[in-house]
């Protein structure tokens, strides 16, 4: 056992800095992070709006029609465009992060995350086009 | 080479016995194409103000001593060059208490590295006793090495802690380097220490305090990508969570 | 040194968060584009989302599932980020309250949507 | 004062100190270990070692080969009992590191890979890419954490050995963060403070490599051995001195002069080997002393390249290709591009010799025991008798482990066997010493210690460099005597307690001056040329009659060191000519012919 007996004066006085609530305004990198997290607000609003749609649906044709008119009103278009921008940012950041969490290995070698990110984009564009085609052709 | 140009440097000072809080001091230092921030600080110490304190040793970006905030970005002083800047503000690494001038108090950081039990575990107690010489290596193919190699390159410089706002807010967070170290061992085919280390990973102050800000990896001078390690650690922890819920297999 | 670590329950919400992020990234942009831009501008017929058509869609199991996925997972995703984001902004709600509001709220909406869809 | 009592004190947490501490913890878990280091363990300069660590593994290799390479590399100044013990222990220690998690580079089948190194007949250098020291140090540091009996005192700066009744009983150290003294009591002390490369101006060493332990032991009465032997590494970056590992040449890199000519063939290292087909102990794979000397001659002939950072030759790796460079030498690529703006995949790297390693140190026997009872030494601060007049690359990292274990076990045994210390006397001694250091902290004077440090480095470079002469060395001896006088008059401005580095640098400068003095005086007295000690005057050949001996420098009051000599242990290899390249091969085949008869 080590024994210790200390009679020295304490000269140290480490200076502790506290994080400010506005830390995310200090650096562009942090700001973009907050923006990324902020896109979730848009997502929440949209999800709730869609949920409302389901509720309106079971309330009957009239209720549904009302909902449809609200979401497709010309006033809603700019809001939707804004949402698209936010969603695009979400997608952009998501595809950048995902390959670093789930590493894909082919023949024991890890695929380059940049390559996987591009793969995500290709898949995304394909699903989007497919969805649009189905939607457009559904009439 | 001649030192034909000079640059003004603001250096943050804090001398606990004299100063109530940190303050900035201006210096003008000569520099050339090769001059690093570390060399600029050494010039200040040797020629302008010998009371300035900072840590350094290898001056080749491998010992991890010389982390400073350079224009508010965590960087290694010995691998940052004056030629890339027009003016400089140097301070102690963010998110750590300032011991003195540019010296950060990193004791808690080193404590975290120790806490994740960064050494090889084996189930067989005979294999844990390394005082007896062995005849053979554990086999490990280059591919198996590649699973953890990147995560074993950490020089413990602490830049990632200065970069991480989650650590900045909550000093309890084990943080990028320590979690990466834990993950490095977990991915090593020779290690059997899952039982020892998963509890830390699984805890609130483990991987789950990270919100993937990602700035840690951005500033890491050794491309360790701690953000990836932690977030792969989340996947590992999630799997461990499921294992805990599922009834234990018969062979346990 | 600390020695007793308490297992966090984050894996549950983190998994939902991850799934939601994926769905939001892959599917939502198309939905927003079609519903909120293409339809009002008349690029596609509004008939696609007529009461009749949507009911038809929502009465199939596949339709129900798709609706659940597109609505609820992104909601969990958002709840997760807002829950953590408030802490980031130093706007700490009491932890349990925050969990209740965000994950509890998302679960409520999920249950409601599920219930409504079952009615169809 | 802080009073701490442990069974064994280990000073220095580099590879040597950590290995020793682990050995104590494993062999004597009941003994407490205080591991004292002026920097956090992972900052120790072992971290910078790049190339690899030696250990016989291949079937066509043998301990005998490793022994022969080491002894001839040392120009027969190595103690052969130590070398024999060492080569047999190396593979065991390397395997142990493997079992502790060291990420050694592997072959496809999962076995350890080895690379070629200078002066080695067979490839036997274990490597972890080109960050071997980094990985070894971190492995040892991390492993040390698992032993509860090891207590670390990080950022404690050791200022004195405490000697009473003719044996070492403790050390005095500054707790750097608080600026106060701690008196450590221990029944044995392991010194593992590393080398002294910072005595010179251009070196591959970190700023902390200031010869502290050597000076501490010297001041406490232990002799420093073979201090005239200072290794110049042939391939450092001009300007900074940052090392480009010998592994570059081990992998097939070549050295060319201004004319693109592989000049090494002119210095008994040839014949020229085809590019991409390196041959052991030939050309670029010759020993470091010879290669550095060859540069010196090229410089005399004006066949070196003038760069803005000084003269250089080219280290050309281009033919290795990007893939091999990325796999085997990634750190080299990173360093060359960061510090010179040169990508070795596309351009040759300018390099020049820089001070790298101190072969000499605190003299120990095969048990790592010094002449001062209770004091053990290991690593670069020690002269275990292994390296003689020139160390072979990759023998040092291996030595840290082999001798680190020995030092730890021996120190533990000694701690068990020796009685209690007289606390009162030791405390009085420490208080007196501490007071003196405290006075230095506020000393007012006219001399700037930084300038003395620079002048010392310059005079060492000038007088005790690759080639030496009576006159030049004498000049350096005189200059150092003068610098020591100036040192008495230094003035310090800081005066505060917390992390006062100005004060610590001043103490280090005192150590450096002592070491520089011992090096130059030892060089002055060795009137022959051997290994890294080459003279231009009439003593330009090896003189086995008078100087097949270790030098021992003892401290004397108020004057330079007293130099004595000690016999070299020769067991089975009689001194012979040191041959490399074709000459060596010719001799070997002749030998085999003889043996065959
Ligand atoms: C750039 C470079 C590359 C190298 N490459 C190789 C290679 O490839 N192969 C090889 O075999 N060898 C190599 N070497 C040599 C080898 O790395 C060193 O000789 C070896 O690492 C020294 O280890 P050490 O434990 O003796 O000392 P260090 O690792 O230097 O540790 C010294 C320790 O002592 C402590 N200390 C010093 N003074 C004090 C004090 N006053 N108070 C308290 N603590 C103190 C320090 O804090 C530190 O912890 C290389 C050397 C250099 C410089
Ligand atoms: S992960 Fe990178 S930034 Fe963090 S301590 Fe390690 S090397 Fe430094
Ligand atoms: S910056 Fe911090 S939040 Fe996570 S990704 Fe890095 S540890
Ligand atoms: S001085 Fe070692 S990393 Fe900068």
From TrEMBL, chain A:
Name by which UniProt lists this protein: Fumarate reductase subunit C
Transmembrane segments: 41-59, 79-98, 119-138
A GO CC annotation given for this chain: membrane
Pfam families from the UniProt entry: Fumarate_red_C
Key words of the record: Cell membrane, Membrane, Transmembrane, Transmembrane helix
Keyword Metal-binding among record annotations: no
Superkingdom to which the source organism belongs: Bacteria
Species name: Aestuariirhabdus litorea
Family annotation (InterPro entries): Fumarate_red_C, SQR/QFR_C/D
From TrEMBL, chain B:
EC number: 1.3.5.1
Keywords: 2Fe-2S, 3Fe-4S, 4Fe-4S, Iron, Iron-sulfur, Metal-binding, Oxidoreductase, Tricarboxylic acid cycle
Domain 4Fe-4S ferredoxin-type: 145-174
Protein's GO biological process: respiratory electron transport chain; tricarboxylic acid cycle
Reaction it catalyzes: a quinone + succinate = fumarate + a quinol
Top-rank EC class of the record's enzyme: oxidoreductase
Cofactor details (free text): Binds 1 [2Fe-2S] cluster. Binds 1 [4Fe-4S] cluster.
Pfam families with a match to the protein in the record: Fer2_3, Fer4_10
Molecular function, one GO term: metal ion binding
Recorded metabolic or biological pathway in which this protein acts: Carbohydrate metabolism; tricarboxylic acid cycle; fumarate from succinate (bacterial route): step 1/1
Required co-factors: [2Fe-2S] cluster; [4Fe-4S] cluster; [3Fe-4S] cluster
UniProt cross-references to Gene3D superfamilies, sorted A to Z: 3.10.20.30, Alpha-helical ferredoxin
Residues of the 2Fe-2S ferredoxin-type domain: 14-96
Family annotation (InterPro entries): 2Fe-2S_ferredoxin-like_sf (IPR036010), 2Fe-2S_ferredoxin-type (IPR001041), 2Fe2S_fd_BS (IPR006058), 4Fe4S_Fe-S-bd (IPR017896), 4Fe4S_Fe_S_CS (IPR017900), Beta-grasp_dom_sf (IPR012675), Helical_ferredxn (IPR009051), SDH/FRD_Iron-Sulfur (IPR050573)
Similarity comment: Belongs to the succinate dehydrogenase/fumarate reductase iron-sulfur protein family.
Subunit structure and binding partners: Part of an enzyme complex containing three subunits: a flavoprotein (frdA), an iron-sulfur protein (frdB), and diheme cytochrome b (frdC).
NCBIfam families: dhsB, PRK05950.1, PRK12385.1
Protein name: Succinate dehydrogenase iron-sulfur subunit
Species this protein is from: Aestuariirhabdus litorea
Lineage of producing organism: Bacteria, Pseudomonadati, Pseudomonadota, Gammaproteobacteria, Oceanospirillales
From TrEMBL, chain C:
Gene Ontology terms: cellular component: fumarate reductase complex; plasma membrane
Pfam families, per the entry: Fumarate_red_D
Principal subcellular localisation of the protein: membrane
GO molecular function: succinate dehydrogenase activity
The organism's place on the tree of life at top rank: Bacteria
Keywords, in A-Z order: Cell membrane, Membrane, Transmembrane, Transmembrane helix
Localization annotation: Cell membrane
Subunit and partners: Part of an enzyme complex containing four subunits: a flavoprotein (FrdA), an iron-sulfur protein (FrdB), and two hydrophobic anchor proteins (FrdC and FrdD).
Family, as annotated: Belongs to the FrdD family.
Protein name: Fumarate reductase subunit D
Automatic annotation (TrEMBL), chain D:
Domain called FAD-dependent oxidoreductase 2 FAD-binding: residue spans: 7-397
Topology with respect to the bilayer: Peripheral membrane protein
Keywords in alphabetical order: Cell membrane, Electron transport, FAD, Flavoprotein, Membrane, Nucleotide-binding, Oxidoreductase, Transport
Pfam family, one: Succ_DH_flav_C
Record PROSITE patterns: FRD_SDH_FAD_BINDING (PS00504)
Name listed for the protein in its UniProt record: Fumarate reductase flavoprotein subunit
Species this protein is from: Aestuariirhabdus litorea
Limits of the Fumarate reductase/succinate dehydrogenase flavoprotein-like C-terminal domain: 453-580
Reactions catalysed according to its record: a menaquinone + succinate = a menaquinol + fumarate; a quinone + succinate = fumarate + a quinol
Major subcellular location class: membrane
MF-aspect GO terms: electron transfer activity; flavin adenine dinucleotide binding; succinate dehydrogenase (quinone) activity
Cellular component GO terms held in the UniProt record: plasma membrane
GO BP annotation list: anaerobic respiration; electron transport chain; fermentation
Domain of life: Bacteria
Binding site for substrate: 233, 245, 356, 391
The keyword Electron transport belongs to this UniProt entry's keyword annotation: yes
């Amino acid at each position: 056992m080590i024994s210790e007996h200390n009679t020295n004066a304490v000269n140290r006085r480490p200076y502790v800095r506290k994080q400010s609530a506005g830390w995310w305004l200090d650096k562009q990198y942090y700001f973009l992070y907050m923006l990324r997290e902020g896109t979730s607000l848009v997502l929440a609003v949209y999800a709730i709006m869609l949920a409302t749609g389901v509720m309106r649906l079971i309330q009957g044709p009239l209720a549904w029609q009302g909902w449809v008119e609200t979401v497709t009103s010309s006033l809603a278009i700019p809001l939707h465009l804004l949402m698209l921008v936010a969603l695009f940012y979400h997608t952009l950041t998501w595809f950048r992060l995902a390959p670093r969490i789930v590493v894909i290995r082919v023949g024991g070698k890890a695929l380059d995350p940049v390559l996987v990110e591009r793969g995500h984009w290709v898949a995304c564009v394909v699903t989007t086009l497919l969805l649009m085609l189905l939607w457009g052709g559904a009439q | 080479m001649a030192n034909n140009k000079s640059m003004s440097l603001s250096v943050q000072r804090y001398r606990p016995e004299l100063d109530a809080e940190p303050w900035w001091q201006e210096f003008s230092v000569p520099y050339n194409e090769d001059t690093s921030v570390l060399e600029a600080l050494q010039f200040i110490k040797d020629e302008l103000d010998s009371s300035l304190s900072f840590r350094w040793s290898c001056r080749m970006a491998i010992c991890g001593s010389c982390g400073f905030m350079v224009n508010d970005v965590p960087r290694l002083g010995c691998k940052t060059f004056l030629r890339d800047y027009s003016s400089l503000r140097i301070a102690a690494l963010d998110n750590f208490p300032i011991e003195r001038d540019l010296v950060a108090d990193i004791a808690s950081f080193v404590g975290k590295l120790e806490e994740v039990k960064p050494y090889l575990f084996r189930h067989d107690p005979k294999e844990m006793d390394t005082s007896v010489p062995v005849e053979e290596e554990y086999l490990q193919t280059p591919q198996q090495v590649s699973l953890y190699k990147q995560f074993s390159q950490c020089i413990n410089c602490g830049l990632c802690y200065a970069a991480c706002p989650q650590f900045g807010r909550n000093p309890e967070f084990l943080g990028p380097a320590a979690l990466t170290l834990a993950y490095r061992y977990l991915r090593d085919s020779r290690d059997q220490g899952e039982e020892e280390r998963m509890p830390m990973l699984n805890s609130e102050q483990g991987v789950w305090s990270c919100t993937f800000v990602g700035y840690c990896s951005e500033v890491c001078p050794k491309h360790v990508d701690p953000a990836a390690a932690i977030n792969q650690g989340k996947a590992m922890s999630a799997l461990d969570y499921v294992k805990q819920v599922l009834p234990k297999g018969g062979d346990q | 040194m600390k020695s007793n670590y308490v297992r966090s329950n984050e894996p549950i919400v983190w998994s939902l968060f991850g799934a939601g992020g994926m769905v939001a990234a892959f599917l939502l942009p198309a939905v927003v584009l079609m519903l909120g831009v293409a339809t009002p501008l008349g690029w596609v017929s509004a008939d696609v989302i007529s009461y009749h058509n949507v009911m038809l869609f929502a009465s199939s199991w596949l339709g129900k599932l798709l609706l659940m996925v597109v609505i609820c997972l992104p909601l969990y995703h958002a709840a997760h980020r807002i829950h953590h984001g408030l802490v980031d902004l130093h706007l700490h709600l009491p932890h349990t309250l925050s969990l209740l509001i965000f994950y509890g709220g998302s679960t409520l909406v999920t249950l409601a949507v599920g219930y409504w869809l079952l009615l169809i | 004062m802080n009073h701490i009592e442990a069974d064994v004190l280990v000073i220095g947490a580099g590879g040597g100190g950590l290995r020793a501490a682990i050995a104590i913890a494993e062999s004597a878990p009941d003994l407490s270990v205080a591991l004292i280091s002026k920097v956090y363990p992972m900052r120790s300069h072992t971290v910078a070692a790049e190339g690899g660590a030696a250990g016989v593994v291949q079937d066509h290799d043998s301990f005998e080969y490793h022994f022969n390479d080491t002894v001839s590399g040392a120009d027969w100044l190595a103690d052969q009992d130590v070398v024999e013990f060492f080569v047999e222990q190396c593979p065991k220690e390397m395997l142990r590191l493997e079992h502790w998690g060291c990420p050694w580079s592997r072959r496809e089948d999962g076995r350890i890979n080895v690379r070629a190194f200078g002066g080695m007949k067979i490839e036997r250098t274990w490597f972890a890419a080109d960050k071997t020291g980094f990985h070894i140090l971190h492995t040892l540091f991390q492993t040390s954490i698992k032993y509860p009996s090891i207590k670390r005192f990080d950022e404690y700066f050791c200022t004195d050995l405490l000697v009473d009744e003719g044996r070492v009983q403790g050390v005095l150290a500054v707790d750097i963060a608080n600026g106060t003294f701690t008196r450590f009591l221990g029944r044995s002390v392991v010194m593992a403070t590393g080398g002294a490369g910072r005595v010179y101006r251009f070196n591959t060493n970190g700023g902390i490599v200031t010869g502290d332990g050597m000076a501490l032991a010297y001041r406490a009465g232990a002799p420093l051995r073979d201090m005239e032997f200072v290794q110049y590494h042939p391939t450092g970056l001009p300007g900074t001195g940052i090392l480009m590992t010998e592994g570059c040449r081990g992998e097939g890199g070549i050295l060319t002069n201004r004319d693109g000519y592989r000049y090494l063939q002119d210095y008994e290292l040839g014949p020229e080997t085809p590019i991409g087909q390196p041959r052991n102990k030939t050309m670029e794979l010759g020993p470091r002393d010879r290669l550095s000397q060859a540069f010196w001659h090229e410089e005399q002939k004006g066949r070196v390249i003038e760069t803005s950072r000084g003269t250089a030759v080219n280290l050309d790796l281009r033919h290795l290709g990007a893939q091999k460079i990325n796999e085997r030498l990634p750190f080299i690529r990173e360093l060359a591009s960061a510090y010179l703006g040169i990508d070795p995949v596309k351009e040759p790297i300018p390099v020049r010799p820089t001070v790298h390693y101190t072969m000499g140190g605190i003299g120990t026997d095969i048990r790592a025991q010094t002449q001062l009872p209770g004091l053990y030494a290991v690593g670069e601060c020690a002269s275990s008798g292994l390296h003689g007049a020139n160390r072979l690359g990759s023998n040092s990292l291996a030595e840290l482990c082999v001798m680190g274990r020995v030092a730890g076990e021996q120190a533990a045994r000694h701690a068990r066997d020796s009685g209690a210390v007289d606390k009162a006397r030791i405390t009085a001694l420490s208080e007196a010493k501490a007071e003196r250091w405290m006075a230095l902290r506020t000393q007012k004077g006219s001399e700037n210690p930084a300038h003395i440090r620079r002048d010392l480095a310059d005079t060492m470079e000038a007088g005790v460099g690759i080639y030496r002469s009576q006159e030049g060395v004498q000049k350096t001896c005189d200059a150092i005597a003068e610098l020591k006088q100036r040192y008495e008059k230094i003035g310090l401005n800081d005066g505060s307690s917390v992390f006062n580095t100005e004060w610590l640098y001043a103490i280090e400068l005192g150590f450096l001056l002592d070491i520089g003095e011992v090096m130059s005086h030892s060089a002055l007295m060795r009137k022959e040329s051997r290994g890294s000690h080459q003279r231009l005057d009439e003593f330009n050949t090896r003189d086995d009659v008078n100087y097949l001996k270790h030098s021992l420098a003892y401290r004397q009051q108020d004057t330079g060191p007293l130099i004595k000599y000690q016999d070299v242990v020769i067991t089975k290899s009689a001194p012979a000519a040191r041959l490399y390249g074709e000459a060596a091969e010719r001799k070997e085949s002749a030998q085999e012919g003889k043996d065959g008869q």
